[in-house]
Amino acid sequence: MITISLCMIVRNEEEVLAECLKSVSDLCDEIIIVDTGSTDETEKIAKEFTEHLFHYEWTDDFAAARNYAFEQATQDYILWLDADDILLPDDRQKMKDLKGALSFDVDAVAMLYHLAFDEENKPTFSSRRHRLVKRDRHFKWHGPVHEYLEVGGHIIESDIAIKHNKSRKQTHHEQSDRNIKIYEKRVEKGEEFSPRDLFYFANELKDHARFENAISYYAQFLQSKKGWVEDEIRACLSIAECYKHLNIEESELEALILTMKFDTPRPEAACKIGDIYKEKNDFNKAIFWYQLATTLKEPTHFNFKDESYTTWYPHIQLCYCYWQNGNENQSYFHHCKAKEYRPNDSRVNHNELFFKEYYIK
């Protein structure tokens, strides 16, 4: 059986750290906690779970801090988590099974990361990350912010899911404010940004409603022609979102169509084009794009997955559009399809009541 070092970097995580560690501590042979400057009860909580508590002077560099944590590990494999991550019971058992069965020739294990959830707590947005890596391969983190772990060799994919714990009181804006400040300091220093830096800085600008600046950095990223195709498509979708906030519809539509320059149409782009025509009451065109979305699948290499655009969303929009076009049967058909995916959604329930009252009359 392999042994596992859990490596974490933390700062002011008193609200979530205990729950994280309780969910995984018995599955690990060693827990490494690196504190980067907590002023709350984080260190006290960490000491309840491990003697291996280290202090690291924060230098606005997440990769450096994570690499320092990895350097303290002594077991066969390293598992990394953030303080607001947890393993639910089913995934704890899967992790236990993996630990007992994993072959030593495996260099890294990719696991699911569930980031958003519906009203029934089912995941609606997920990604994949290399969570368990072989220590003697000395894999390194790169990037001061939005860091990534560069791995290679024999990599396997697991259905183990890490859940992002949304009970945290700290808002997304408060978290990302730290990130954008790191980027802005780098801009002030005149640092040259990689294509990845350009993309993620643009994301931060968009999240802070600095839409024109975001568009500029997304454009620089696309002009580099050195990005991952999925990031290029995401950049176009984000440009469209920025133009939507700026109320520039023509440019929004152009950005959505531009996604198709990089690969086959994606369900999200198709739905958002449908949204534009729906808002203009051009229901025939809206129906075309929503119908297209129902036939599209996300590529297997796609690292991020938002299930709404391949499940309920196009159907609930088709329900409305067909009704407006006078096609009651097709409207009801797509209502039923949306209901299959989200039976407890408030919008689906509203439509359900509408159809019951309509057909009773």
UniProtKB/TrEMBL annotation:
Location of the Glycosyltransferase 2-like domain: 5-121
A GO molecular function held by the record: transferase activity
Domain of life: Bacteria
InterPro entries recorded: Glyco_trans_2-like, Nucleotide-diphossugar_trans, TPR-like_helical_dom_sf, TPR_rpt
SUPFAM superfamilies from the UniProt entry: Nucleotide-diphospho-sugar transferases (SSF53448), TPR-like (SSF48452)
Annotated keywords: Transferase
KW Transferase (keyword) present: yes
Protein name: Glycosyl transferase
Organism encoding this protein: Cytobacillus kochii
